[in-house]
Automatic annotation (TrEMBL), chains A, B:
It comes from Leekyejoonella antrihumi. InterPro entries: IolE/XylAMocC-like (IPR050312), Xyl_isomerase-like_sf (IPR036237), Xyl_isomerase-like_TIM-brl (IPR013022). This is Sugar phosphate isomerase/epimerase. Residues 27-256 form the Xylose isomerase-like TIM barrel domain. The keyword tRNA processing does not apply. Gene3D superfamilies: Divalent-metal-dependent TIM barrel enzymes. One of its GO terms (molecular function) is isomerase activity. Keywords: Carbohydrate metabolism, Isomerase. The keyword Transport does not apply.
């Protein structure tokens, strides 16, 4: 059997599974790590989740997700900070250093993109030392510009690094998610620049025609246009040796038998991500 | 009546009109320029089009479009070069200096994005002197990363300028299209860098939720998230004084009465593009 030791299932890929079901599914598939989402975590509670994950012998590759730091209303912004501090504590309790940060889109009715980006920067300033105190790294996730308006105003790895580099690497890093960054003409130089700050490497494909619901537009590796092996070479050259997490938002993948999805995911991982 | 002298109708906004109908529509609406597409131009022929446009007293703000320079097959690539030379001649005959270049996506089955970008660069090298000989500027259009795979591998203004700056400004410029560039964290610095090379300033809005057909995802100015006045300030600071072209691909806009679309377009132009 080829080496699957770095392959991690991000829970979102098997969206209909509860966290206990996803843990069992990872064990059946011979995987050793899982990326956990906070909503299914809350359904069973942190202590139960921790016990199940430990009993299964799994690592937690990341916790998804903190962020949403663009509110203009002060009390909303403060509530977001408080929620992120909870997320930091959950990540620490689960034994992962990686808290994925989806920073949030433009507030309702706002067209002030530079202002939204400035608030993200302010929020990270408040959260970075808290993360450091808990041994957690805030993993800033630049998102594909298809999501700039409504999900994540950080659009490029360079922009995420501009913020991250203001803090010690153990406090603030970045996510390199192939889907979000594959189009970037500065990809090569910015991944190199990210050396020492890559919190997570995630993979899923850009498929065309784009599905009707843009949120569910991600495809299984190999079904689209991304050269994953090139991306793996880039993060490897930047010193990244951590987990490779598969996170797929896609209605067809979600409708399929989750065990079959894991089987396909393993094969594609071997064929087009780590394969030569 | 407020000043509409810089407002141009890109034909695509009234997609169901033939070129003669669009010319008449512009005259009824009191506009003084039009952005012409090659397909409707071919329907009536260059000489007829030129006569109708001149008789109407209109300027041609741009010809759309050249490009599609990413083919890996040599004969296909050569055919694209030949077609672009025809487009350059058509632009010159219509009296516009601006030939909009949609550079093309990844070839079928290819995942070699750097390779596709290199072919675009090779194609521009062959076309730039020809454009210069005809008094036409190749207007490289960076496209929103939603289109990197299937339409335009140039994703940022910075990347377009990296190519353009290898040539005299009168041969190669760039298009600043709000829809395509609004998300870019380097927008301000790259528009400033583009001073002297802005061939065209186009406007249409980024709307959410994104329509199901991503090709038709552009909205009327004011219906979405873009701060057009900020964009106008940026291109103005970079010395641009040319036409402001409205190019909207949207099923609802295309289904509406075109005269009504022009009326709305004029009002929105005054309210949210040049308005304070």
């Amino acid at each position: 059997m080829s080496d699957l030791s770095r392959l991690s299932l991000n829970q979102k890929t098997t969206n209909r599974w509860s966290l206990p079901e996803a843990i069992d599914g990872c064990v059946r598939a011979g995987l050793s790590s899982i990326g956990v989402w906070r909503e299914p975590l809350a359904e069973i509670g942190l202590d139960t989740a921790k016990r199940l994950i430990d009993d299964a012998g799994l690592r937690v590759s990341s916790l998804c997700r903190g962020g949403f730091l663009t509110a203009t209303d002060n009390s909303e912004f403060d509530a977001a900070i408080a929620d992120n501090i909870e997320a930091i504590k959950e990540a620490a309790a689960l034994g992962t250093t990686c808290l994925v940060m989806v920073v949030g889109g433009l507030p309702e009715g706002s067209r002030d993109l530079p202002g939204a980006r400035a608030r993200v920067s302010d929020g990270i300033a408040r959260l970075a030392p808290v993360a450091g105190d808990h041994g957690v790294q805030l993993a800033l996730e630049p998102m594909h510009p298809i999501f700039t308006a409504d999900r994540g105003v950080l659009a490029t790895l360079g922009e995420a690094l501009d913020i991250a580099e203001q803090y010690p690497a153990e406090q603030v890093g970045v996510v390199v998610d192939s889907f979000h960054v594959w189009w970037d003409p500065q990809l090569e130089s910015q991944v190199a620049r990210a050396a020492g700050r890559i919190s997570s490497f995630q993979v899923c494909d850009w498929i065309t025609p784009l599905p009707a619901d843009s949120l569910l537009s991600r495809g299984m590796m190999g079904d689209g246009h991304i050269d994953f092996r090139h991306h793996l070479d880039l993060v490897t050259a930047a010193g990244y040796t951590g987990d490779i997490e598969v996170e797929i938002f896609n209605a067809d993948v979600w409708a399929a038998d989750p065990d079959q999805v894991l089987a396909t995911m393993k094969q594609r991982y071997l064929d087009v991500v780590v394969g030569v």
